[in-house]
């Protein structure tokens, strides 16, 4: 479904990810894990068209997409939940969700999607007319994910959803992501929380200072001595 081939990307002409390649098949839940500053967010920004790669190619559903603008990628089904949530605190929960649906032009489809999203996140429905800033950190993360679903994506990319959440909430949000994945939405998540992110994924890639150093099924990675030593503190 998504094929990233040898991309190099960065800021102001200085690359921070090098020769990064990975693939996602339809329906998979993939985790790219690595420490702070490894380049995880840069990878997602490149796939979602916010940054232009300096080299390499990206294919989605069999077509080159690395020269398309971000909004066109949203239309094609790539949704990006950015790091740090970025919900609009002064706006209502419902309005935040509606912003996520800006590429959908059928009112009917928007309503149907909203219903579906509220089914997954009943708490958001209960509070739809309240300002987003009244939500707790965990609920705001849920809102960010819910907003990412409002464009009816084929693939949902989630950047560091654990950031700033208490462990118990991390578990809760991850469980919801798993549920979304089980409904057939392909998911690419990037995470610093290596163990949690691998445990729930089908496959994973390990990113170190801008390069993928190893990849495999989650189980293979979790059992690898290299990964255990470097990331799991064992
Ligand atoms: N907007 C930016 N401008 C310049 N450098 C950046 C910017 N964002 C990130 N970087 C740098 O790129 C590298 C990778 O960052 P990032 O992709 O955010 O890593 P991660 O998400 O894994 O923490 C870091 O060295 C970071 O300082
Ligand atoms: Mg990041």
SSE order and pairing:
Blueprint: E1 2-11, E2 14-24, E3 29-33, H1 40-47, E4 55-60, E5 63-64, H2 70-76, E6 78-81, H3 93-100, H4 107-120, H5 122-126, H6 137-149, E7 155-159, H7 167-182, E8 186-191, H8 194-200, E9 203-208, E10 211-217, H9 218-223, H10 225-231
Parallel strand pairs: 3-8, 3-9, 6-7, 7-8
Antiparallel strand pairs: 1-2, 1-4, 4-5, 9-10
Helix pairs in contact: 3-6, 6-7
Bound molecules: adenosine-5'-diphosphate (ADP) and magnesium ion.
Q: Oligomeric state of the chains?
A: single chain
Bound molecules: adenosine-5'-diphosphate, magnesium ion
Q: Over the alpha carbons, how many angstroms does the gyration radius reach?
A: 17 Å
Structural class: alpha/beta
Q: Judging from the principal axes of the Cα atoms, what is the shape?
A: globular
Main beta sheet: strand number and arrangement?
6 strands, mixed
How many discrete domains? Answer: 1
Q: Terminal Cα separation, in Å?
A: 35 Å
Order of helices and strands: EEEHEEHEHHHHEHEHEEHH
CATH superfamily grouping: P-loop containing nucleotide triphosphate hydrolases
**Arithmetic mean pLDDT:** 94
- Helix content bin: 25-40%
The strand line-up of the biggest sheet is: 6-7-8-3-9-10
Stretches with pLDDT under 50, minimum 5 residues: none
* Name given to the CATH architecture: 3-Layer(aba) Sandwich
**CATH class assignment:** Alpha Beta
Helix count, DSSP H or I runs of 4 or more residues: 10
What's the CATH topology name? Rossmann fold
Strand content: 25-35%
Total strand segments: 10
């Amino acid at each position: 479904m998504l094929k990233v081939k040898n991309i190099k990307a960065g800021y102001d002409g200085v690359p921070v990810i090098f020769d990064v390649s990975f693939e996602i098949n339809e329906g998979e839940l993939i985790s790219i894990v690595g420490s702070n500053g490894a380049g995880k967010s840069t990878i997602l920004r490149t796939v979602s068209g916010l940054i232009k790669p300096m080299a390499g190619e990206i294919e989605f559903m069999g077509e080159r997409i690395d020269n398309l603008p971000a909004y066109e990628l949203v239309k094609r089904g790539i949704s990006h939940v950015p790091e740090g949530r970025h919900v609009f605190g002064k706006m209502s929960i419902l309005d935040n969700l509606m912003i996520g649906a800006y590429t959908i032009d059928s009112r009917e489809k928007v309503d149907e999607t909203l219903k579906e999203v509220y089914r997954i996140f009943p708490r958001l429905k209960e509070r739809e007319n309240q300002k987003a800033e009244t939500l707790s950190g965990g609920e705001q993360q849920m809102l960010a994910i819910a907003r990412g679903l409002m464009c009816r994506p084929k693939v949902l990319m989630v950047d560091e959803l654990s950031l700033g959440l208490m462990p118990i909430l991390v578990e809760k949000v991850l469980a919801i992501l798993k549920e979304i994945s089980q409904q057939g939405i392909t998911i690419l998540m990037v995470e610093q929380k290596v163990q949690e992110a691998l445990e729930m994924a089908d496959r994973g890639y390990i990113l170190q200072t801008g390069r993928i150093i190893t990849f495999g099924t989650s189980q293979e990675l979790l059992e690898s001595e290299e990964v255990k030593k470097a990331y799991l503190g064992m």
